[in-house]
């Protein structure tokens, strides 16, 4: 063991600092990718669960009449409940638009589901408000700012005295209404006698795992308007973490694969360069096992060093990749995980061990006398390949460059594979960005086929319907009425759709659109959760109504991770629509919202549909950085491989220089070899990237409930340029790699050592 360790330490001392640093760097990149991928997937859940515990475990939120909710406080399902909390709804002006808000009195700090203060203090007087934290960060609202709140056409100006996080629903902009908190006097000022109020009850269950069953039972009781179980809320809160975490984790596979090929190729090249040193060690008495063990120990010491460095980098970077929760809860702190360190070290160790042992065993078994001869290694290119190069009648520089590549087919294959993965990574990154851009530009892909939402005009919907039908700016509209429904003992979101079915422009993926009473269309998440298919019949309860529905199709939906069932509003006679969803004939949603406000007056709540390109930007930047990282590493590996090949044949190159081989031809031969590897990488990487894009994108869109088949390929121009660009990048990397060697004198080149 001591002899093996001495060999490893001696190899490290004599090793080129550049080569040693490169091996450690590649190991660090691979480890950083592993750690960051693991952290992004797991960092949001613990943060949400912590605030859930701090809030007294709000397992169930029940909406309804105050008297009915007061009677539920003694239900056997509850271990504890907060007080029945009154609230009113209105609009809060944010920037150029407004957002729906639920304004409630503040429950006691010890109550189940009490909001968690993030900044400032709680309101004590009328005119003060604690603002929804996620919305405050998004809109730039700070403590001390004035905000305008409109309740039933009665505008009021309130002073923000703090911000808080509330867990009765997910966070803005994914969910609304946002939640604001005022004093009892403040609520009386906003909603005096005659203004409609609602009430809610938050409870902690005796058995938190029975949240769905409790919601299913309580949701059918008289006076209960809706029930929201914590598992559904938690899934909604973490939906962005699911999207981005899954995407980044899947994309991180490219970094790992590229690193694996780079490490393997670098290890093989180093062992070839040290073949004379290995033979000398054997000549003085070292056994093959000691030689292989020393080489392996040397590489693993570098790899472990790099893995630890990568673990540190991945741990530091992971919080910066968080999206979706940062606005409401702040970015997570550093989560130091020994498990992720062990995983990173194990991964890097396995890659390095496999990449080192196989060529080391082969190098150690070569005859010592053959290796010690003062002659360059013979070309490993098959004779038929050499004859083919002769028949192609290529220029000398091109023939020499291809010969250099083919002389080491295994190393060239590893180099081309690493570059092919980089090409695939670029294709996947571009495809993901195209997919996200398409979802933003076509909101029906996310289940939002409208421009503006209108609610609460004070006429029960009749006035709004008449006004919308008469406005030339309106291309179409439909209504929706949401109910928490039950199927068996599980709850889900059921949505009654009214108006003209043809104007509800949902993206139908299979089956027929929703036309008549008794029919239903489902989100993909609903079908997957309950194991159903198009054509099945389901018996549900939506509030107090028992409905039998035949599923005639499924559509793209992301709300509640696609666990939504839509049916015709005629099956809920007398129910007032929650909202009118309006599509315009052109122009922006904001312009249509302005026209609707002018037409409908202050009694109606009008909000333009919003996208969130800022959060999308974080995701796309992360993809671009990772794709660029893979590409840089792969091109650096390509350059190193070509330089190693050229150095191995330096004596041959020196002979060629003496008979007229010019500096330009020297650069051209290396560029030809690089172009050949780049061409092969592009031809392989392009189709691989398209296949992987489809697989990964389907996993992401299925995970968020929208279903498979929504991925978008990159632009045709990018696809057409991929293979030529890979060949050009290879040529440039090859020329850059041998630029210094090309200027070396022929006399120096012909000296083999």
Automatic annotation (TrEMBL):
InterPro entries: ABC3_permease_C, MacB_PCD, Macrolide_Exporter_MacB. It is a multi-pass membrane protein. Its main location: membrane. It comes from the Bacteria. Keywords: Cell membrane, Membrane, Transmembrane, Transmembrane helix. The keyword DNA repair does not apply. Residues 251-367, 625-744 form the ABC3 transporter permease C-terminal domain. It is found in: Cell membrane. Residues 412-559 form the MacB-like periplasmic core domain. The chain crosses the membrane at residues 242-273, 294-318, 338-358, 413-433, 616-643, 674-697, 717-737. It holds the Pfam family FtsX. Belongs to the ABC-4 integral membrane protein family. This is FtsX-like permease family protein. It comes from Phytohabitans maris.
């Amino acid at each position: 063991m001591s002899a093996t360790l001495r060999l490893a330490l001696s190899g490290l001392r004599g090793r080129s600092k550049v080569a040693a640093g490169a091996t450690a760097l590649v190991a660090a990149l691979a480890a950083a990718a592993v750690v960051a991928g693991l952290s992004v997937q797991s960092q949001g859940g613990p943060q949400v669960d912590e605030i859930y515990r701090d809030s007294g475990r709000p397992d169930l939120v029940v909406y309804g009449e105050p008297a009915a909710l007061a009677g539920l406080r003694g239900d056997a399902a509850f271990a504890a409940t907060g007080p029945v909390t009154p609230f009113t709804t209105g609009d809060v002006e944010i920037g150029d638009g407004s957002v729906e808000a639920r304004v409630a009195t503040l429950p006691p700090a010890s109550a189940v589901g009490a909001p968690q203060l993030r900044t400032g203090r709680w309101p004590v007087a009328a005119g003060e408000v604690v603002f929804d934290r996620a919305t405050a960060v998004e809109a730039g609202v700070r403590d001390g700012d004035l905000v305008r709140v409109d309740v039933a056409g009665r505008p009021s100006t309130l002073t923000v005295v703090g911000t808080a996080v509330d867990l009765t629903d997910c966070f803005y902009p994914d969910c609304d209404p946002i939640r604001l908190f005022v004093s009892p006097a403040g609520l009386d000022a906003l909603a005096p006698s005659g203004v409609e109020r609602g009430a809610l009850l938050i409870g902690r269950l005796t058995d938190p795992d029975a949240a769905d069953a409790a919601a299913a039972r309580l949701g059918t009781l008289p006076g209960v308007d809706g029930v929201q179980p914590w598992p559904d809320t938690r899934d909604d809160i973490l939906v962005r973490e699911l999207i981005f975490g899954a995407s980044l984790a899947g994309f991180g596979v490219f970094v790992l694969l590229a690193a694996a090929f780079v490490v393997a190729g670098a290890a093989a090249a180093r062992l070839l360069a040290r073949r004379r040193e290995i033979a000398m060690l054997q000549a003085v008495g070292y056994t093959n096992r000691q030689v292989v063990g020393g080489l392996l120990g040397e590489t693993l010491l570098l790899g472990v060093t790099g893995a630890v460095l990568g673990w540190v980098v991945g741990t530091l970077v992971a919080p910066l990749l968080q999206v979706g929760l940062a606005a409401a809860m702040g970015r997570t702190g550093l989560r130091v995980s020994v498990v992720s360190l062990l995983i990173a070290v194990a991964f890097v160790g396995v890659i390095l061990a496999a990449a080192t042992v196989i060529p080391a065993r082969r190098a150690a078994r070569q005859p010592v006398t053959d290796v010690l001869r003062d002659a360059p290694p013979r070309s490993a290119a098959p004779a038929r390949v050499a004859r083919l190069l002769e028949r192609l009648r290529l220029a000398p520089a091109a023939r020499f460059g291809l010969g250099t590549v083919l002389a080491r087919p295994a190393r060239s294959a590893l180099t081309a594979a690493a570059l092919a993965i980089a090409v695939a990574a670029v294709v996947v990154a571009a495809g993901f960005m195209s997919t996200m851009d398409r979802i933003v530009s076509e909101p029906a892909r996310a289940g939002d086929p409208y421009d503006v939402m209108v609610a609460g005009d004070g006429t029960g919907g009749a006035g709004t319907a008449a006004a919308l039908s008469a406005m030339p700016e309106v291309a179409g509209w439909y209504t929706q009425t949401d109910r928490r429904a039950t199927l068996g003992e599980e709850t889900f979101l059921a949505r009654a759709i009214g108006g003209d079915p043809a104007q509800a422009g949902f993206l139908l993926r299979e089956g027929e659109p929703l036309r008549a009473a008794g029919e239903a269309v489902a989100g993909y998440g609903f079908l997957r959760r309950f194991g159903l298919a198009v054509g099945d019949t389901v018996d549900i309860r939506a509030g107090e109504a028992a409905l039998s529905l035949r599923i005639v199709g499924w559509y793209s939906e992301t709300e509640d991770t696609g666990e939504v069932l839509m049916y015709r509003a005629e099956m809920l006679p007398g129910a007032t629509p929650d909202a009118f969803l309006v599509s315009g004939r052109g122009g922006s949603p904001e312009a249509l919202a302005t026209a609707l406000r002018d037409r409908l007056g202050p009694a109606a709540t009008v909000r333009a549909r919003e996208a969130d390109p800022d959060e999308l930007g974080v995701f796309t930047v992360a993809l671009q950085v990772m794709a660029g990282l893979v590409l840089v590493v792969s091109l650096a590996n390509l350059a190193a491989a070509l330089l190693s090949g050229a150095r191995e044949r330096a004596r041959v190159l020196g002979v060629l220089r003496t008979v007229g081989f010019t500096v330009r031809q020297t650069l051209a031969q290396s560029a030809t070899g690089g172009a050949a590897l780049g061409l092969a990488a592009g031809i392989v990487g392009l189709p691989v990237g398209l296949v992987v894009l489809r697989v990964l994108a389907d996993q992401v869109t299925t995970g968020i409930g929208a279903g498979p088949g929504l991925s978008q390929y990159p632009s045709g121009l990018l696809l057409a340029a991929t293979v030529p660009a890979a060949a050009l990048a290879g040529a440039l990397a090859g020329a850059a790699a041998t630029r210094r060697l090309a200027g070396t004198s022929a006399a120096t080149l012909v000296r083999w050592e």
